[in-house]
Write a structure and sequence with these properties.
The chain is mainly α. The chain is built from 9 helices and no strands.
Length: 209
């Protein structure tokens, strides 16, 4: 079902996409800095599950609704953008996304849900899955929805693993950064601006893209 050359090309493309800076890996790195490896891993798993949600929607044809219904697309876009903008403003003004104060750290359940929702509520991964994964599928190799689910699972697993590794590296820096409050402030502002930029980019999306 998956020729080696096609699978290798897909893996290389996914690696480029996953490593590219974005709100999800920034979130995992932030969790690693502020709360250590477990929080980074949970945020990363949440992001990976978000990829699977988009993949299942695409395999079932639900994602096509975003491309054919202006109202549905606008609602999803508005909710996703609002959520990312809220995360960005919160990071900048409350400076709690990256915090070494135990009272300011979030419960692990919330860390997981934030990682999941930041991906699920973002229509860009959904549109990306619809445009990207089918290029590696072929009806001559069996069920296209099944191929999409497998490719999506690979995407999700690589996302979770790579984000976890990035978060673990960030956790190594946490002790040094905890003694540098200005760096922590800058990290929160930088992460907040990343989320705001992602939110604004979602507002600029159109269905033709």
């Amino acid at each position: 079902m998956f020729p080696n050359d096609v699978l290798l090309a897909y893996l290389l493309a996914v690696l480029v996409v996953v490593i590219a800076p974005g709100p999800d890996n920034i979130l995992a790195i932030s969790r690693g800095l502020s709360q250590g490896r477990p929080a980074a891993a949970l945020s990363s798993v949440g992001a990976g599950l978000g990829i699977m949600v988009h993949t299942v929607a695409a395999a079932l044809g639900l994602a096509l609704v975003l491309q054919t219904s202006p109202l549905a697309f606008w609602v999803v876009k508005a909710v996703g953008a609002a959520y990312l903008l809220w995360l960005g403003c919160k990071a900048i003004f409350s400076r709690s996304l990256i915090s070494f104060v135990p009272a300011a750290q979030q419960p692990l359940k919330r860390v997981f849900l934030t990682g999941l929702l930041s991906n699920v509520l973002n229509p860009k991964p959904g549109l990306f899955v619809v445009a990207f994964i089918p290029q590696f599928c072929s009806a001559s190799r069996g069920s296209v929805p099944a191929q999409m689910l497998v490719y999506g699972a690979i995407f999700a697993v690589l996302t979770a693993i790579i984000f976890t590794v990035l978060g673990a590296f960030a956790a190594q820096l946490s002790q040094a950064l905890s003694r540098r409050p200005r760096v922590v402030v800058g990290a929160n502002v930088g992460a907040g601006l990343t989320f705001i930029a992602a939110g604004v980019s979602i507002l600029a999306l159109n269905r033709q893209r």
